[in-house]
Amino acid sequence: MRWQQLAMRTISEVVAIVLKPFDSSNGLRILIYHAVGDTLVYGDSLGLNTINIELFKRHVDILSKLSTTSLLPLDIPKNDLKIAITFDDGYADNLHIVAPILAEKKMPFTVFVTSNFVKKGLKGFLTPTELKLLSQIPGVTIGSHTCTHPHLTKCDDKQLLFELKESKSYL
Fold first, then answer.
1. CA 72/CA 7 separation, integer angstroms
2. Which of 11, 31, 33, 146 is the most buried (most CB within 10 A)?
3. What is the dihedral sign for C-alpha 44, 129, 140, 167?
């Protein structure tokens, strides 16, 4: 395990065990995950965006005691705390590992899919068939995470429009 992974795991453990999660706050908190298990995350050379299964299950145990909600439609409560769980990019483990864990607890979640990763059959990402299966699971919402996964701050208006429209059209 690299030192960066060890540091991230240690921080996560401290937050999960020592701090009172989301003490008395109101509003919506959005948790962003990428991959669960051994998946290498696109563009993540340090391995910081993958969480091991056991640690993810501990996160879920803590979150199951709170009020989780679907991200869409966007509803920001004024007198309550809601947690939305999201996953970026569309990794296959979102269907095979994440969905069974969260479905067992009846916890909704959103997967933001990079459409070209699916279309091109990139290893480790959902296939079109898997994406359809995932979309049929109660509590799962599929959202667009662009077409080619560019750095959006570096895109001009034309490229931004293409990324958003093309991905949404495919999905």
1. 32
2. 146
3. positive
Which tens digits make up the pLDDT trace of 5-62?
666 667 766 665 555 555 557 889 999 999 998 877 777 777 778 889 999 999 999 9
End-to-end CA distance of the chain: 36
Give the model confidence (pLDDT) of 76-122 as tens digits.
888 889 999 999 999 999 999 999 999 999 999 999 999 999 999 99
The whole-angstrom separation of Cα 170 and Cα 116 is 9
CB 21 within 8 A of CB 81: no
DSSP-assigned letter for residue 91? B
For tokens 């540091």, name the residue.
7
Q: In 3-state terms, what secondary structure has residue 74?
A: coil
Establish whether the linkage from the previous residue to 100 is cis, with ω within 30° of 0.
Answer: no
Q: How far is the C-alpha of 30 from the C-alpha of 7, rounded, in Å? A: 22
Residue 31 CB neighbours (<10 A): 13
CB atoms within 10 A of CB 55: 15
Contact 150/163 with Cβ under 8 angstroms? yes
Largest CA distance in the chain: 47
